[in-house]
Amino acid sequence: MKKTLTTTVPAALVALGLATAAQAEIRIGASVSSTGPAAFLGDPEAKTLEMMVEDLNAKGGINGEQVELVLYDDGGDANKARTFATRLIEDDEVQAIVGGSTTGTTMAILSVAEDAEIPFVSLAGAIDIIQPVKTFTFKTPHTDRMACQKIFTDMQARGFTKVGLISGTDGFGASMQAQCKDVVGDYGIEIVADETYDPKDADMTAQLTKIKNADGVQAVLNPGFGQGPAIVTRNYRQLGIELPLYQSHGVASDSFIELAGKDAAEGVRLPGTALLVAGLLPESDPQKPVVTEYKAAYEAKYNQPVSTFGGYAHDGLALVVDAITRAGSAEPAAIRDALEATSGLVGTTGIYTMSPEDHLGLDLSAFRMLEVKDGGWTIVE
């Protein structure tokens, strides 16, 4: 079986497999942050996309047609992401794009894809990506607003009414901070401390000290991603703060526990996906076969733990493949229409059912509230 996987690095195209790019019948593009500050997102995403396309072609492709993946590394730079999106569409002539590891790179790709009327499935979290609905844009991760709602539901159940907020000023952190402020009143909870930090900051002790001394604070929430939340978690323990600490789905991976340290991360809660607790899912869970198969394949191929972020890429490509299969066509307009009609597609992140009003297709039930116990993830019952 011929393989038509092509991976693109910033300087050049490197062909993998036996066929040339010209022999590929279906071309899917991607721009992810394989290097740079968001590499913890983009590296597993790139590896997942490559693995899935190799496997797909080995099994006969889509409707008998081979697939070429054209993959760029934007390094987390929105300007590079915009350039690569343009190149994917104008030079590589892809029929769909999967990517955008961060909110910033996603918004850059989105503008190009929408103008060119090319379907784009984002791997980033901000609600602005799909609300208001954009005609050609879809996404796989839960929104930051949904993460706030899941966290506040858990806080409410534990009787917390006053919380502190410490947020990153990056695109994701700022967006989630705004969304949490917008919905917190629905849960009878008051934000009594509100601090921020720059993603490049190496110490958040000053902000956490203010939160620790805030009147009546009962729990703390940290919207953010990257190294910031790990530093917050370490500083939190160093200050001896014993209040419950919540993180966002932006750090839902084993690498967060490693960066923060097992002792510091103990007891941290966050909304995550079934993928992080694949072994704890009951046999009756419809996601179990999907997450266990992906986890086993990824870890066998790359000899490293699977991550939530690679799971987002898994679902992004699965959505495009499913859309092309159902449409019986790889024309961009046909893919777009089929994506919007997705119904009951089981992914690692949840079960997707989209509509003209909903280009995510997930609800809060797809989120699992997770807690770090003994250095690993457990499901909060």
UniProtKB/TrEMBL annotation:
UniProt-listed Pfam families: Peripla_BP_6
InterPro entries on file: BCAA_transport, Leu-bd, Leu_Ile_Val-bd, Peripla_BP_I
Segment forming the signal sequence: 1-24
Tree of life domain: Bacteria
Protein name: Branched-chain amino acid transport system substrate-binding protein
Leucine-binding protein domain segment(s): 25-373
Keyword terms of this UniProt record: Amino-acid transport, Signal, Transport
Family under the similarity heading: Belongs to the leucine-binding protein family.
